Amino acid sequence: MYQDHITVRQRHEKFIKKICETNIVYGLESEEGFATSSSNDFDDENGEPVGIICFWSEKALANSCIKNGWVDYNVAEIPLSELIENWCVGMNNDGLLVGTNFDQNMFGFEIEPLELILELVKELKAINSNIVFQKFENLVDLETQIVNANS
C-alpha cells in the first residue's frame, strides 16, 4: 500500500519524540551487520539509490519488519547517545541516510544523518533532557559542532 508523505512525516515526528523520551532506538541486526535498504528518494552521483540504515522508535515496529530479506535479523537496542555520536556521524561520513520508522512495506522517512541530529537536539532541548555524551560536552556543544560541520 502506498504511503503518502504526510503519514511518513507523522511517523518520523513520532520517532523523534519517542526516542527523545526513552533515550532508546531500535535497529535490526544480523551476523552481517545492521539492516539496510535503498533510498526511494535520493540517488548518489552515479545515479544509484543512496544506502539507508533503518531505525525504529519501538521494538514492536522493528520486529514487524523482520521478514523477506530481513528474516535472519534480530531487534537490537541502541542508546540514543550512541545513535547520535557514533551512528549518525559515521553514516554521514559514509554517505548513508537514516530511515526512520519504516513499515512492513519498506516505506519510511529518509533523512541526512546530520539533519536528524539537529532535529533530535531541538526536541531534547524542548523536553529539557539531560542526555550524557562521550564525545560532546552537552547539547549546545553537539549542536554547534554539527552546524559547523554542515556549513
The gist of it:
The chain is of the alpha+beta class and 151 residues long. The protein is built from 5 helices and 7 strands. It has one domain: Uncharacterised protein PF11572, DUF3234 (Trna Endonuclease, Chain: A, domain 1, 3-Layer(aba) Sandwich), CATH 3.40.1350.
Folded structure, characterized:
With 151 residues, this protein is of the alpha+beta class. It has one domain (5-150): Uncharacterised protein PF11572, DUF3234 (Trna Endonuclease, Chain: A, domain 1, 3-Layer(aba) Sandwich). The protein is 42% helix and 25% strand. It has 5 helices and 7 strands. The strands form 2 sheets. A 4-stranded mixed beta sheet has the order 3-4-6-7. The protein has a 3-stranded antiparallel beta sheet with strand order 2-1-5. A hairpin with an 8-residue loop joins strand 6 (97-100) and strand 7. The longest helix has 18 residues, at 5-22. The N and C termini lie far apart (38 Å).
Overall SS class: alpha+beta
Distance between the termini: 38 Å
Shape descriptor reads globular
> What kind of sheet is the major sheet?
4 strands, mixed
Computed Rg: 15 Å
What is the CATH third-level topology name?
Trna Endonuclease, Chain: A, domain 1
- Total helices: the number is 5
Strand content: 15-25%
CATH secondary-structure class: Alpha Beta
Order of strands across the biggest sheet?
Answer: 3-4-6-7
Keywords:
Trna Endonuclease, Chain: A, domain 1, 151 residues, alpha+beta, single chain
